[in-house]
Design goal:
By secondary structure, the protein is of the alpha+beta class. Among the domains are: 180 residues, 3-Layer(bba) Sandwich (FAD/NAD(P)-binding domain), CATH 3.50.50.60; 96 residues, Helicase, Ruva Protein, domain 3. The chain is built from 16 helices and 20 strands. The strands form five sheets. Strands 2, 3, 4, 5, 11, 12, 13, 14, 15 and 16 form a ten-stranded mixed sheet that branches. A three-stranded antiparallel sheet has the order 7-8-9. It has a three-stranded mixed sheet with strand order 10-18-17. The two termini are 40 Å apart. It binds flavin-adenine dinucleotide (FAD). The site of flavin-adenine dinucleotide (FAD) has 37 residues, from helix 1, strand 7 and strand 16.
Length: 502
């Protein structure tokens, strides 16, 4: 398996849980690509109703419901409110949401409903009251994408898969004319290694065509790329528990402002980009676009001081024909097999990762001539699945309170917060190093904890102490500590409002 995002990790789990010997190599960190830069919704996608892509909505809702059932410690129900300015809009969106309910939206999550003006304001107290007629409420899933990625890696490892981060595939190995292995470079030590097997699965996200070119330099590109940016705002702008849905932006998209980890996540944009980038950054006009739309709906204008961080991700979209707009390209997925037997799985959404994985492993089993074995992930509980309701309460998006408590009991200084503005303690960092394969400062501050997204400036301030703690755990020297702080601070400045990074 090449690539440790949602697709590759899901595929590794699927293969290992069927009993196939599985190795997954990730060039950077698990989830560090698009899979940690999403809107963090396990959803059918109300937007695709307008595009009449009902089969995608039905498939995604089925997978959303499975995500909640198999990982209740990582996926939460969230109320979404669409404010409307008149009865015609209320009927229009109400009918759409009834269809969403029927396609599977109501199952496990509850039915959508119409809200009076007062009930709309009760759910979203900071909505502008002028021109507000009423609203609609529906329910979808919300999760922490990077923590879900780690959980998939852990679950795959529990089933016997070897999953390794910071190892990048540089070359494909052939037996005759068949692709049967990879050569890879350890990005931290520079060492090379090779892995051979019966079949190679390319799940490199926006980089699948790069891997495809290693397989066959004449391979046709399969993807189109679209950048989506988010801003992370102070909770005062949306203090309730319901998310705000702006159903039609100027470019015909749905915009969300969603409570998440004590902040508000607002996004997203959809800008075609010519090529994949490892570290995409939000453009100033994307940030303006998001702020301007929010300003139209919220009582208080978001100020620059409200912006805790900004981040961007690139969607791996199956390329359409005839130069279609990226926002109208399908979010469905496909599995391709090259002449040399490289299996590539591309497109899709986080929510459909499990189905993508099932399809990829079905194909890989045929291509690799493996013994036929049935997929078991539909009902497979992910690592950390709570054993009782009490245990579920001790879990915060995948951190097990009892593990943190025992670390803190052994060493009380680990109870200290890593920064007064961040909801994490030193024990979270030690846990990330000891149990979650965090090898760099960015792994710990960006994806094991979500410090970088929650407050970019605070994460830079926390970096020196966290780096020292990690150095002690990993047995690294002062030089390592300093270079980690420098690299991380440089990365984190890219998460600050354009023009505000100092
Ligand atoms: C702005 C935005 C918002 C989104 N919101 C949602 C949402 O709310 N809900 C939803 O369901 N979906 C959402 N999506 C879609 C979802 O995030 C993606 O479909 C999904 O994360 C893609 O996962 P992936 O594993 O295919 O790609 P990635 O996560 O990019 O993983 C590919 C991995 O391959 C690795 N790799 C590349 N080259 C190599 C190599 N040579 N060797 C080893 N590894 C390599 C990369 O480092 C990377 O980690 C959103 C996407 C974007 C951009």
């Amino acid at each position: 398996m090449i690539g440790g995002g949602a697709t590759g990790l899901g595929t590794a789990l699927d293969a290992a849980s069927r009993g196939y010997r599985t190795v997954l190599l990730e060039r950077d960190d698990f989830g560090s690509g698009t899979s940690s830069r999403s809107t963090k919704l396990a959803h059918g996608g109300i937007r695709y109703l307008a595009q009449r892509d009902f089969s995608l909505v039905r498939e995604a809702l089925r997978e959303r419901n499975r995500m909640l059932r198999n990982a209740p410690h990582l996926v939460r129900k969230r109320s979404f409110v669409i404010p409307v300015g008149g009865w015609a809009a209320k009927l229009y969106y109400g009918a759409g949401l009834k269809l969403y309910d029927l396609l599977g939206g109501a199952r496990d999550f509850g039915r959508s409903r119409m809200l009076s003006r007062d009930a709309t304001l009760q759910a979203v107290p900071t909505l502008k009251q002028q021109r507000l007629y009423g609203g609609l409420e529906y329910f979808d899933g919300q999760f922490d994408d990077a923590r879900m990625a780690i959980c998939l890696a852990q679950t795959a490892a529990d089933y016997g898969a070897t999953v390794i981060n910071h190892i990048g595939v540089s070359c494909l190995l052939k037996t005759g004319n068949r692709t049967t292995g990879v050569e890879a470079i350890d990005q931290l030590s520079g060492e090379t290694l090779s892995v051979s097997g019966k079949v190679v699965v390319n799940a490199a996200g926006i980089f699948v065509d790069e891997i495809g070119a290693l397989d066959n330099s004449d391979a046709e590109p399969t993807l189109a790329f679209s950048q989506g940016s988010h801003i992370v705002l102070d909770k005062r702008l949306l203090p309730g528990e319901s998310a705000l849905v702006i159903p039609a932006t100027k470019d015909g998209r749905v915009l969300f402002a969603i409570p998440w980890h004590g902040v508000v996540l607002a996004g997203t944009t959809d800008i075609p980009v010519p090529k994949p980038l490892v570290s995409p950054k939000p453009a100033p006009d994307e940030v303006d676009f998001l702020l301007t739309h929010l300003e139209e709906f919220l009582v208080d204008k978001p100020t620059n001081g409200d912006v805790r961080s900004v981040f961007a991700g690139i969607r791996p979209l199956l390329a359409g024909t005839g130069g279609a707009k990226t926002s109208s390209l399908s979010r469905s997925h496909a599995v391709f097999t090259s002449e040399n037997g490289l299996v590539t799985v591309a497109g899709g959404k986080w929510t459909t990762y499990r189905q993508m994985a099932e399809d990829a492993v079905n194909r890989a089993a045929v291509v690799g001539g493996l013994a036929r074995r049935t997929c078991v992930t539909s009902d497979l509980r992910l690592a950390g699945y709570p054993t009782s309701d009490d245990a579920a309460e001790g879990l915060d998006y995948g951190f097990d309170a009892s593990q943190l408590n025992s670390l803190e009991a052994e060493s009380p200084p680990l109870r200290e917060p890593i920064h007064p503005c961040l909801p994490y303690r030193k024990s979270h960092i030690v846990h990330a190093v000891r149990n979650e394969m965090a090898l760099t400062l960015e792994d710990a501050l960006s994806r094991r904890t979500r410090s970088l997204l929650l407050d970019a400036r605070a994460s830079i301030e926390a970096a020196p102490a966290v780096a020292e703690l990690m150095a002690r755990e990993l047995g690294k020297d002062v030089q390592w500590t300093q270079s980690q702080i420098k690299d991380f601070s440089e990365t984190a400045r890219g998460y600050m409002l354009p023009g505000f990074a100092k």
